[in-house]
Design goal:
The protein is of the alpha+beta class. It is built from 4 helices and 5 strands.
C-alpha cells in the first residue's frame, strides 16, 4: 500500500543519513522529538567515558559545557523542519558527567540533521 511504501522510504532515508554521519563522525546518536537520546547512548557514553545509563534518555545539549552553545543548539532544534539543511555546532562536551573542578571537556563538532519520523514525528540525527 501507499503507507507501506512511504514508511519503507522514510526508513531508508534515515538509515542513509545515519550511515553518512557514521563515516565522518566518531559517534552518531538519534534524538527524539523532545531532544532526548533515543539511540546511540552506548557509543556516546564510551566517547565521554561515562556510564551508558547516565547518558540514555538525557538531552545531548545537557552534556554541553557552555550555556550559549546549549541555547544555540536547542534553538536550532526547535526551529528546524524536515526540509532544513544540516547544521554544525562547535562546542565542548563534558566527560564522565561530572561538573567539578577536575572535569574533562572534549571539543566537538556536532552535525545535526532533522527528519520526519514515523507518524510525522520530528526526529534528529546528530553526529559528533
Amino acid at each position: 500500500t501507499r503507507r507501506t511504501v512511504s514508511t519503507t522510504m522514510l526508513g531508508a532515508q534515515s538509515q542513509a543519513l545515519m550511515r553518512l554521519l557514521e563515516l565522518v563522525c566518531d559517534v552518531v546518536v538519534d534524538l527524539d522529538a523532545d531532544f532526548a537520546i533515543a539511540d546511540g547512548a552506548h557509543k556516546l557514553a564510551a566517547w565521554l567515558a561515562s556510564n551508558p545509563s547516565d547518558v540514555q534518555g538525557t538531552r545531548l545539549q545537557d552534556h554541553m559545557t557552555d550555556y550559549e552553545d546549549r541555547a544555540r543548539f536547542e534553538n536550532f532544534l526547535q526551529q528546524s523542519s524536515a526540509s532544513a539543511m544540516p547544521t554544525v555546532v562547535h562546542t565542548k562536551l563534558l566527560c564522565a558527567g561530572s561538573r567539578d573542578a577536575g572535569a574533562v571537556e572534549k571539543s566537538a563538532e556536532i552535525f545535526c540533521v532533522t527528519f520526519c519520523g514515523l507518524q510525522g514525528r520530528r526526529r534528529y540525527i546528530a553526529g559528533i
